[in-house]
Amino acid sequence: MEIRVRYAPSPTGNQHIGGIRTALYNYLYARSKGGKFILRLEDTDQTRCEERYTKNLYDSFDWLGFRWDEGPDTGGPHGPYVQSERFDLYKKHAAELVERGHAYYCFCSSERLEEVRREREASKSSETGYDRFCREIPLEEAASRVASGEAHTIRLKIPLGKSTTYTDHVIGKVEWKNEDINSDPVLLKSDGFPTYHLAVIIDDHIMGITHILRAQEWLPSTPIHVILYDSFGWQHPEFCHLPMVMGLDGKKLSKRHGSTSLNEFIEQGYLPQALINYIAMVGASFEEGKEIYSLDELITHFSIDKLSKSPAIFDYKKLEWFNGQYIRMMSDDALAAATLPFAIAQGLFGKPGEKPTGAQEELFKKSMPLVKERVVFLTEIPGKVEYLFKDFVLPPKEEFIPKKADLNQTLDSLKKGKDIVKQLIEAKTDEEAENFIKTYCEKEGLKLGDLMMPLRVAITGSKVSPPLFPSLRLLGEEQTLKRIDSAIMLLEN
Ligand code: GLU
Fold first, then answer.
1. Is residue 297 helix, strand or coil?
2. Which of 173, 255, 403, 428 is catalytic?
């Protein structure tokens, strides 16, 4: 049997972490089984769906770098993959259910439903949902009312006095008393639009979906779906409800905990590989002790048997750790390319938005080894290497003066520094430069730190900076000397 799974978002908002995880698990499962991963747009709620959210969906997966095999843009044997283009299909099937006695026409107006709700409230009744007012109208009578143009919906006739049972691959056996299920939900609305329940069942069946991996928030809908499958005489796919995603405090992940929409993670400077790797861990177990997985490795190791039943914790700190690890694993060229848009936006090469010249781009690439080990987010990089691209306002005098030293000693250090710039730049390796400066300090009776610190501040503008020797090499002799001179001038006045 070919495994066929789907990601079925409604374009009513931007892509968020929960949705991405659902898509990822579906993708991993399909790939691990040589099956197919399908994208279906569930845009039946036309009041809430917007074009910009569909665009966000495509942009998000372009960024993430994994794709579906069949979908609205790629096509496939069961298209169209957009529900609003499949309305005739839903109508036809809804009418068929009525014919078979599993659904019925309902003529209740929204005013009447509101009235029922108010009466119940007043009498403090525990009853909820539809009161099944139209359930027993004989089909012939109902059909003639429909034919005469009376407004109607189609409702599912939930069999009463029974239970609905199914086995969820993750959760195990699930049983619902039918009386506890949303009472006779609408399948087809009065405007002819299907509801989620009807459309999802028909599409999953027709598209040959074998497994449904989706969020646990859909658990209450599942018995309705099982009843629908039974009503059509179809076999339902295997259900795998994914564990909830929680914050560290055990509450459902939300804005209160941090970013949840993918755009925010992109803007913060996360790498897609890091995000994918971490998200895959949130709700499934992989090998003991191994944390870094490429997408291919995730495919190899993923199994729906390893999905966890209990809620999964989304730990932002852990995600940051993953991002740092992935930054360190990147080549200089790849890291520079990934960071370039942020550098341009932050104005590293001129005004914000200005692109680099060839020389600037070259320097940018060469500066990557200086920061690779020191950042967690791509967005931190431009600020950290800015001193290589721009002159800066020198910090106040006190910043230059090492502990236990004074102004004159500091000036002396800077002047001595000027004498050895050439040798430091010409040293073949950092180690060679370090040995040279150490020997020089011994000879001059200087403490290493008392020489290094003022030099560092003069050259980078800060006491804490990327390594000094490679910075000197990237800046070159002329720039370096100019900066030391400016510092000397500041300290002398
Ligand atoms: N359209 C639903 C959503 O927005 C799909 C739920 C399902 O996977 O059945 O998540």
1. helix
2. 255
pTM: 0.94
Q: Is 91 a catalytic residue?
A: no
| Residue-wise pLDDT tens digits, 378-432 | 999 999 999 999 999 999 999 999 999 999 999 999 999 999 999 999 999 999 9
pLDDT tens per residue across span 175-227: 999 999 989 999 999 999 999 999 999 999 999 999 999 999 999 999 999 99
- CA angle in degrees (0–180, nearest 5) for 63-218-212: 65
C-alpha distances (whole Å) from 411 to each of 32, 453, 467 are: 66, 12, 22
232 touches 203 (CB < 8 A): no
Q: Cα of 245 to ligand 1 centre, how many Å?
A: 16
For residue 418, give the amino acid letter.
Answer: K
Report which DSSP code applies to 398: G
Per-position DSSP letters for 190-247, written without gaps between them: TTSPBPHHHHHHHHHHHTT--EEEEEGGGGGGHHHHHHHHHHHT-PPPEEEEEPPEE-
Residue given tokens 């034919």 in the structure block: 147
Q: If 0-12 CB within 10 Å is exposed, 13-18 middle and 19+ buried, where does residue 167 land?
A: exposed
What one-letter code names the amino acid at 113? L
Give the rounded distance of the alpha carbon of 267 from its chain centre. Answer: 11
Decide whether any atom of ligand 1 lies within 6 Å of the 200 Cβ: yes
Provide the 8-state DSSP code for 75.
B
CA–CA distance, 456 with 452 (Å, rounded to integer): 6
Q: Is the CB of 86 under 6 A from ligand 1?
A: no
Dist CA 467 CA 456 (whole Å): 9
Residue/partner pairs of 119-125 with CB below 8 Å, 24 or more apart? none
214 in contact with ligand 1, CB cutoff 6 A: yes
